[in-house]
Amino acid sequence: MLFNSLLFAAFLPLCFVAYWAIGRTRWRLQNAFLALASYAFYAAWDWRFLGLIILSTGVDYTLGLKLHAATERRRRRAILGLSLTLNLGLLLYFKYANFFLDSAFTLLNALGLHVEPLTLKIILPMGISFYTFQTLSYTIDIYRRQLEPTRDIVAFAAFVSFFPQLVAGPIERAARLLPQFHRPRDFDPDRAADGLRQMLWGYVKKVGIADNLAPFVELCFDAAGPHDSVTRLCGAVLFTIQLYCDFSGYSDMAIGMARFFGVDLMRNFAYPFFARSTSELWRRWHISLSTWFRDYVFIPLGGSRVSLARNCVNVLIVFGVSGLWHGATWAFVFWGLLNGLYLLPGVVRGRKPEAGTVAEGRWLPTPKELLQMVAVFGLWGFSLIFFRAEYMAKAGPYISDLFAFHFDKSVDHAQFVPPLLAAAGLLVWEWCTRLQPHGLAITRLPRPARWVIYLGLALALLVYGNTESREFVYFQF
Amino acid sequence: MRAQIRFLLRFALFLTSLLGVCEAFFRTVMMARETPFPWQDATFKLQRYDPKGPRTGWFTSGRRIQQQSQWHINDEGWNSRQPYLPAAERDRPLIAIFGDSQIDGMYTDWAESVPHQLELLSGGRYAVYGFGHSGYKLGQYITVAEYVAAKGFAPAVVVLSLNPGDVTGAVDVLGGRRRSNNTLLTVQERDDGVIAFDEQPPVPYRTTRFRRLMRRSALVRYLVFNARINPFSGRQRDLALDRKAGRAERDAATNPYAAAAVRHVIRRVKGLLPEAKLVFLIDGDRYRIYEEGTAAPIGIVPVVQAACRAEGCAVLDLTPVYIERFAADGRWFNFDHNPHWNAYGQRVIAEALWDALAPTD
Predict the structure, then answer these.
(1) How far is Cα B269 from Cα A437, in angstroms, rounded to an integer?
(2) Which 3 state secondary structure label does DSSP give A212?
(3) pTM of structure
(4) Which pairing describes strands B56-61 and B67-72: parallel, antiparallel, or unpaired?
(5) Which residue in A has a C-alpha nearest to residue B3's C-alpha?
(6) How many CA atoms lie within 13 A of A152 on its CB side?
(7) What ipTM score was computed for the predicted complex, to two decimals?
């Protein structure tokens, strides 16, 4: 069930009414309802994989209790190892089995051992990367004695499967989200109204912009399509905007609708295109994943409190793994490593990421800030070529076309003007709201002006929004 | 629950405002499609437009109103600016064109439609009436012929327009819909192996008050007709040529039921309008021509040609016409958002028809 489908438009209000009809005092029953509704939401996509979520929930709930009860270090390690093996095992099998098989066969063939390649027919369960990381954080935090395990399996099931963020995040930490399922939840109409605004903004980004940019991006990345430098440049720029609108749009919808149920989810995007350095970019892009890798991979590796060389290696490991998390091909690994490389100059110089938001208290950035933002956008957009191409063999020709500085007059470049204008319009709007939690947090405007904007955007979605219910890009991860 | 109800009321207020804004917007700024009321007369059960309903309005199509034209419903319930007169009240012979939505001509102004263009090309020597309505298939032409005969229009020429899917959609065993507003040909195989048909008349057209009420809303009309949002699938309907129907039609070339159905309809129409010369007008695979510059005739063409050779009528296959014209100027014959003929397409087809008919003049 997609957020941008008519089925979901019926599902969400029904859930809202039923959830609050249960009553605030019967919050345990509300948890049970949320878990069941979330299972129904997931089953609407493919009920066969529901068992995986339930298995993951049961295993981590049990292991969490055992981990907490265990006092002996070796036993605690063994239990944590079991949790990691089970969770990562599922992920490795469903997401990476073919990747490792392909890589092994390629290596064997390169060594002169001719082996027939084997490909397993495996369907990637939607959202597995997200909920696996969420449950992993639970057991790791208990292992670290940073979290008490829950004894309420229903609350835990609701935490793992909460439908707004089940399939594409934000990847919540147990310490932050689980306590919200352990107490009565209050309904704040103002926060819910703000959630509604955030959802509308999410739909504008997803249905209004990302889905309309998608056909142009497909054309630009099509190997059989036009391949002059201008087309390739337009493709890179438009894909950067498309990916942002697609994923941050989903996050906005998730955060917004969670508020209807009295649940607060963490912020996942904070205007990444206004980052002045690549390290700031990663504080603003997919924040829940970046902080997850920081807390559960980078810091256990020693973090930055190690030698400079080791620190650099740690950064590259984290970004390489992050790339692999995004997709099971070498292009994703390279994408991650490239972004790690972008950070190394700052690591070597011991530079801290810029604090605050660019041009706070000013309308416009300084020329230096503008150059920094353009440079970060360029570097990020360049790396995303590997992300979009998915395979190194496709990324290579794309990049060589891009830097061939070849202009083909026979290509209709004018077709890229409307999508580029839409992208520019989005950037201008977000620049104006960059200090706010989301693009429609415009409470300083008078009410009539706000309503004109809300109604105008809703009408524009109706006329210009793409109604093909395209899947979210991040669902494939 | 009070806070939740207050929130829902606020949301309802927003939705109501949105509905109001949309209604006004689709009535004034981007006009949603206005359609005449569908209607079926009691005698022939022939689906057309209600002359007692609105007689004129704006027809638009496309999500962004890429096309706009004006329709006029005459006393007989057809989309035409001219009254349809019986032979006794006319001073010139008649060319009658039977067809579906292409001949209905809602997508262009009447002045640009095939019937009017053909009349102009004939220099006014012929009156040309379009008897087209959206959804008509081959079997329905028998009912149209019954109506034309009974009304005393007495055409000198009858043009039967066919698009992909019009033959297969008219025969039950080839996928024709039972209980539709079209006459359905149901196969009755005889002991001697000859294929015969029963004609299942159109079912009475029924509408509900709710549907009529919904039609009054510009927003509903926009969503249904312009945005073509199907609330049951959540997807836009396919606006391209019906490829599935095209595939079925390709198979029709070797299908004995298709050949028998064409011959049956020819005989029935000739029986009802014995004085009329029959000409089949068959559409081509326009999208393939746009993509490849050429295309084979659609599957039904050889079937109709064979039937016409046996029954003594003519066939105008538009495929070579399209290929020649497209090679000359590269212009599309239909809208880029919709497969219906645009003004240029209507003109090209009228010219081709006149070229085919003129030697008999």
Answers:
(1) 71
(2) helix
(3) 0.81
(4) antiparallel
(5) A189
(6) 16
(7) 0.77
